[in-house]
Structures are given as C-alpha cells and as structure tokens.
TrEMBL record:
Protein name: Malonyl CoA-acyl carrier protein transacylase
Species this chain originates from: Desulfovibrio ferrophilus
One Pfam family recorded for the sequence: Acyl_transf_1
Keywords: Acyltransferase, Transferase
Gene Ontology molecular-function annotations: [acyl-carrier-protein] S-malonyltransferase activity
EC number: 2.3.1.39
Amino acid sequence: MNAITPLTAVLFPGQGSQVKNMGRDLAEEDSDYMYWWTKAEAISQQPLREIYWGGDDQDMADTRALQPALTVTNLTLWMHAAKKIKADSFAGHSLGEYAALAAAKVLDVEKVLELVSLRGKLMAEAGAPDQGMTALLKLSQEDAEALVVTAREQSGAELIVANYNTPGQFVISGQKPALEAAAAIAKEKKGRAIPLPVSGAFHSPLIDEAAQELKVQLLKADWRTPEADVFFNATASTEGNPEIIKDIMCRQMVSPVRWIEINQTQYRGGSRTFIEIGPKGVLAKMLGQNLKGLDKDWTGTNLDTMAAIDEAE
C-alpha cells in the first residue's frame, strides 16, 4: 500500500462560535485587517466593532450582525495564518462555508461580506413563531432520522435533520408541533432534545423564500475555479466547476449540513492536519468524534487569535 502525502484541511466555524473581542487583536495590530472590519460595517450597516468588542451577548447573537462579524473574523485570521500555512482544502460549517469560498478565491472577500450581510438580514426576517431548531444528543444517526419521520407523521408538520454535526449530535429544523413530537420521542429513546435559541427553521425548505432572495444575488456574483479544494455542506464533496458551485450555494440555505461526512471524506482523501481558523474551537473538538475508529494519525488544532497563529509551528 502506497504511503499517502498528508494534506492540510482548514475549517471555518459558523453561527454559535461568536465570542467577545473576536478578531480585535489582529485589527488593532494591523490596519490592513482593520480595513476589513470597517468595510464589513459599511456593507452590513451594523456597528460590528461596537457590538463584538464591547456589546452584550444578546446583541452578539443577532444574526444580522453576527454573520458579517464572524465572517470578517474568520477571514482576517486566515489572511494572517496564510502567511505561514498552506491549505490543501477548505470547508466551513454553514455560515463558515462563505469564508471557505473566499479563502479558496472562489469569490472576492468583499463579495462574500455582501452575501453574508444579506444572508443575515434574510434569515432574521425569515423567522416565524411556529418554527425553530432543536439539538438531538445521545441518539444515533439512524435513530435521529427515524425520529424525524415519526414526528412528521404524528404532527403533520414539517421537520428535517438540518445538521449532521457528529455521530451523537444532530440538529433538527422545522415547525413547532413536529419539534415537540420529536422531543417526546427522543426522551423515550433515552436521548436529549435541546431547543436552540433561534427563531427560524434554518437549513430546511421552510425558509425557501429567503433562499430565493439570496439566490438573486448569488447568481450575479463572479464565481471562479477554487485555488484549493472546497468541501461543500450540501454534498460533502468537492467541486471545481464554478457554475456547479454556484448552484450548490443557491441550495445551501435550505439543505442539511453534512459535517460528519465532510470530515471523514477529507480524512479518506489524505487530510491529516486539520486546522480550525476562528473562535471557540467547536469544529476542532468535533473531529475526535467524526474520525473515531480511524487511525489516530491526524491532528486537530484551533487558531483563534493572532498570538495562536504566530506561535503555531
């Protein structure tokens, strides 16, 4: 058997990974990075630095500000890290996929900031009182998928598995009656159902109207061939054709995030160094579960500050 050449996979986190003062050290050290914060504020018309460098947690969770702020954090961290790290592939979880597109030069950074600002606005407006999302813990993928089918049948309401995060953590998205039925079934199966603090059924067909509005702008963007592989949420595979990438991204907002498969496909393709670029390190922690049972010949690291990047070998 031929030895593989170990590859480096760079991962970008999505919503829920925001922290106070994210990206601040870089921006205050280098005006090139501060430029992107001011650009993101101008595009989103949100006081991002005021919110994330001095606001409260409630303001930080507002998706209209969160999406451009986390994206500019991820991308300025990557701009700094790219001076010493060569990425063979990129992937981003949900919102993080837009940072991956910019990092792979599929889209310009400015265009990505425009798109995530619009995405945040549309997702905020797409919220409805009868919709939501729930995390399922301690259930297998088979049980989670069967639970969704049963809850739909019992309630007559819409429900899908929206995020395949780890083999023991899934997120379901849909209408409240179905979510309530799902929670009851999860309890019967000795699992846990934790309602998430969101007001929309994201990554489900219920927000198709918002997805169609975003699609109008996605179709106008200048899509290019990736300079490194990008693993896409909706397909868990790579794609090099800009026209097909555009189509995949037009479906992203209403399609499940297939993160378990992404990590496993990256590993099977030769990725052995996984580096999460962004706050909190959630994706780096998921690797242990998603690559369980495979040879422990890989490493997972989170680089979330300028100092962490500068100290990395």
